[in-house]
């Protein structure tokens, strides 16, 4: 059965459902709706077709469609109005620049009235192969790991895990407790400036921790960046993996 469905003057153009993929059908439908909204294919009126119409189009029962819509409502992508139907929440995503000097608060500029980053946990651990390679260390060497969540106007937009050489940045956990900023914490440890050495970006489904800390629904998409920051001489000082809520943030690659 063809699963294309019409909304307003646009179309929801999701691919065929994969019924034995191991991914729940409601999640696949939610992803299709989310993707079409992101690409502007859902039309100008912002109203979804009735649940029965969507169920017919996707070849599923109404309960499956209702589960997909409920997940997107929880995530803030859709809203239901009694007696009127289900509508897209028209919210402009924050534009987060990825450039030579990427900084959370400065990057959002005047897009948000307030920003903050809070520390979830700080601990020492042995460096994995990926962390060791990024920091120019040997696997098993001791690193300091910081887990953080960043917010804009009180809404969580990203969570990050950062690793630092424990031999050089012994007090960075305490510094972050005081300053709530990676940049100021590095400055407290003697690094006055640093630049982005490399960034790898991918998209994936949010993990259970992502959904809890970012307030997402199961199956939501996060944009993942794996970045190395370094001093001007190229010496790596930080390796970080950040997860951005894809419906709230877009990543903008800048040529500095």
Spell the H/E element sequence.
Answer: EEHHHEEEHEHEEHHEHEEE
Based on DSSP secondary structure assignment, what is the total number of beta strands? Answer: 12
How much strand content do the residues show? 25-35%
Overall CATH class of the largest domain: Alpha Beta
Précis, in short:
It contains eight helices and twelve strands. It has 256 residues and is an alpha+beta fold. The chain has two domains: 5-88, Winged helix-like DNA-binding domain superfamily/Winged helix DNA-binding domain (Arc Repressor Mutant, subunit A); 94-253, Chorismate lyase-like (Chorismate lyase, 3-Layer(aba) Sandwich).
Structural description of this entry:
- 27% of the residues lie in helices and 35% in strands.
- With 256 residues, the chain is α+β, with helices and mostly antiparallel strands.
- It has a 6-stranded antiparallel beta sheet with strand order 6-7-8-11-10-9.
- The N terminus is likely disordered.
Topology, please?
Layout: E1 5-7, E2 10-12, H1 25-38, H2 51-58, H3 62-75, E3 78-81, E4 85-88, E5 94-98, H4 104-108, E6 115-126, H5 129-135, E7 142-152, E8 155-165, H6 172-179, H7 182-188, E9 195-205, H8 208-214, E10 221-230, E11 236-245, E12 249-253
Parallel strand pairs: 5-12
Antiparallel strand pairs: 1-2, 3-4, 6-7, 7-8, 8-11, 9-10, 10-11
Helix pairs in contact: 1-3, 2-3, 6-7
């Amino acid at each position: 059965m063809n699963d294309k469905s019409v909304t307003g003057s646009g179309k929801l153009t999701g691919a065929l459902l994969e019924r034995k993929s191991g991914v729940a059908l409601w999640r696949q439908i939610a992803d299709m709706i989310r993707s079409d909204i992101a690409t502007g294919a859902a039309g100008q009126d912002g109203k979804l077709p009735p649940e029965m119409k969507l169920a017919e189009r996707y070849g599923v029962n109404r309960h499956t469609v209702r589960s997909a819509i409920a997940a997107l409502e929880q995530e803030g992508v859709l809203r239901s109005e009694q007696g009127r139907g289900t509508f897209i929440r028209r919210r402009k995503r924050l534009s987060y620049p990825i450039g030579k000097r990427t900084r959370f608060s400065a990057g959002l500029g005047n897009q948000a009235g307030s920003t903050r980053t809070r520390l979830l946990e700080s601990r020492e651990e042995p460096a994995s192969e990926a962390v060791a390679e990024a920091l120019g260390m040997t696997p098993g060497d001791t690193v300091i790991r910081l887990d953080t969540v960043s917010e804009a106007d009180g809404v969580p937009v990203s969570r990050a895990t950062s690793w630092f050489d424990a031999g050089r940045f012994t007090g960075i956990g305490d510094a972050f407790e005081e300053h709530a900023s990676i940049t100021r914490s590095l400055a407290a440890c003697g690094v006055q400036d640093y630049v982005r050495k490399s960034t790898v970006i991918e998209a994936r489904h949010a993990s259970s921790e992502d959904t809890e800390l970012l307030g997402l629904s199961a199956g939501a998409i996060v944009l993942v960046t794996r970045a190395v920051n370094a001093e001007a001489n190229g010496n790596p000082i930080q390796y970080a993996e950040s997860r951005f809520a894809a419906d709230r943030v877009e990543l903008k690659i800048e040529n500095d």
